[in-house]
Amino acid sequence: MKKISVVLAVVIATLGLASCSSTNPLDSSPSASAGGTAVVVGSANFPESELLAQIYAQALRAKGVTVTTKLNIGSRETYVPALKSGEINLIPEYTGAFAKYLNPDADTGTTEAALAAVKAALPANLTVLDPAPAQDNDSITVTKQTAETYGLTTIEDLVPHASQMVLGGPPEWKTRSYGVPGLKKTYGLQFKSFKALDTAGPLTVQALKNGQVQAANLFTTDPAITANGFVTLTDTKGFFGSQNVVPVVGTEVATTQVSDTLNAVSAKLDTSTLAGLVSQVVTDKKDADQVAQQWLQDVGLS
Amino acid sequence: MTWALNHVEDIGGLLASHAVLAAVPLLIGLLLAIPVGWLAHQQHWLRTPLVVGTGLLYTIPSLAMFIVMPLVLGTGILDPLNVVVALSIYTVALLVRTVADGLDAVPAQALDAATAMGIGTPRRFFTVELPLAVPVIAAGLRVAAVSNVSIVSVAALLGIPQLGSLFTDGFQRNFIDPIVVGIIACLILALVFDSLIGLFSRWLTPWLRPGSAT
Amino acid sequence: MTFLWQWLGDPANWVGPDGIWVRIGEHLVYSAITLVLAAALAIPLGLWVGHTGKARRLVVNVANGARALPTLGLLFLAVLVAGPLLPGDLAFAVPAILVLVILAIPPILAGAYAGVEAVDRQAVDAARGMGMVGHQVLLNVELPCALPLMLGGLRSAALQVIATATLAASVSLGGLGRFLIDGQAYRDYGQMAGGAVLVAALAMVVDVVFVGFQRLVVSPGLTSSVVTRRGLREHLSTN
What we know:
The complex is a heterotrimer. Chain B has one domain: MetI-like fold. Chain B contains nine helices and no strands. Chain B has helices at 2-6, 8-42, 44-57, 62-73, 81-104, 108-116, 121-152, 164-172, 176-204. The termini of chain B are far apart. Chain C is built from ten helices and no strands. Chain C is an all-alpha fold. Chain C has helices at 2-9, 20-52, 56-67, 71-82, 90-117, 121-129, 134-164, 177-186, 189-217, 225-238. Chain B binds chain C through residues 56, 58-61, 63-65, 67-68, 71, 101, 135-136, 139-140, 143, 146-147, 149-150, 153-154, 156-157, 163-164, 166-168, 170-171, 174, 176, 179-180, 182-183, 186-187, 190-191, 194, and chain C through 65, 67-74, 76-77, 79-81, 159, 162-164, 166-167, 170, 177, 180-181, 183-184, 189, 192-193, 195-196, 199-200, 203-204, 233, 236-238.
């Protein structure tokens, strides 16, 4: 019965090899290629963020930068620590929301103010590059029927009716300054309750459609808004601020080449372009990496 | 299923990562469960605390386990090592009882015979007890393998790429194809693991095969 | 680990509409509904398979295959497919329960047919000799004799369901999973670890209740528990 000993030896040897080999999927440490900077692009857990991460990754690859991706990490509370610790060193962000994350009292009324607020609060090992003209804002969205019943066009119009309404949004909205507490502070909105759904994804759309929630957080670029005839309420007090797409980079990889490449990408990205690209991924079910590649080709960046 | 045909390469990559993330903890867990299970089998008073204690580990929800791991290990939150360690713990949780049961089921006569032949305790463990316990341990290992394949997919909620990434991707885009492909791939992987362990167990236990002289 | 005790020790976290007590209640309700539905399906089927021996291979293989289904994928699929067809709060609750039921069926089924199969053939022969017919044998002899193994199956299903019901929170439902999903979203380790500890504790309490229940209902003639436990193990491991 030497078989058992042989098996045990093989198992141990396999485990040993697995922990040394550099090509195995368990090895997560980004290895810098000779002479170049290795960029690890991360993304949040919604399709637009993954698409933007793919655009950044492929634009950089086209310039010969070594890039790996770690997509769909989670909410800001999850990926920012990974960014600070250097597990990832590039991620697409939104000026206003990121500024409010870093400093709950930040003024995010204009693109410039939001960017300045981000720069003021950013840790030294992180850098923001140029923001794109493209904005994708959080919103309070209702169904057409709700809007007509209560005569809603702005978020302020909700105030007298909110106590009978359930608000839906991502779980982190319950405590975030740009979620429930902020809405109360800025607009005096007090909803009957808050229902934690997903990050403006299919749960939110379904919950809004079938009346589990009466008002919900959707992204303004979301093709589901027009597809379902939803009404996005105007943010008269600028609560959600300016939400320009902006790359946040680890300072150690923010070389001139990386910065110039990403700034060139941002310059070409406006809101309708972004909405069109998101729609290709979400509605037409195309792959984010292919949509990214095609667009970069079309605008001459690959 | 044109989506599947257009993404064979991606699916293959995710399948490979999934297989590694499920299999490595299975081996680590087995290596850890053998000594612990042996202890539970050997020391009567240790049996209940060991079997119940390790069994309890299995009730810790996987999502929590994955997220708390970095605090315990000092790893980064995106490190696949978190998944490997968490699944190794689940494997141990399932296997300690099995190993102890397997060793209990070894006939006392076989042990007495080995002792009478002058085989010392350590050698007797590896040459008599463990081989005779293989069928029971293999049965437990199959359960653990199938369970690991399912649990690995939860790590997609933390952005660790494997077949579960197809679930989150499909869900976020309200797109059923990737989810169905992911489920089928998980089933196939579980089946492969199950068959491999079955074959392996047969190879290790020639005396149980029909027609064998002994 | 001080954050864990801080979170568990804060009385404010225990009360209110999203407090720990409410979440434990929701968790138990989901788990109970799941177990009742799964038992209603799996126990009659298991008894029938065990009693008649019909379709045994098929049932055993399908049940074992079901164990390999990835719960997360199944949940997402069920929500996307069934959600739009259901009104209001049922849209996410029904798919979540459905997935948990699928998870709970294999162990209950295995317990039921293994229980009947493990019944001493001599007891069955004796019953027939006393003039009992098929269903009488099943109800008066096989069922009570199979009870220990059946409850064993139910017990392991309950543990799995309680540990897995946390996933329901990822599709907006309540239960203790809320603390895990919300804790992850806010990076609140105390809440997350607290939620995990509560799930494990709940599983332990339910397990103890099951053991007590088992002692209560199982016929004293069957309490040579060594025999029955070994019977279950052999059955579960040979399948």
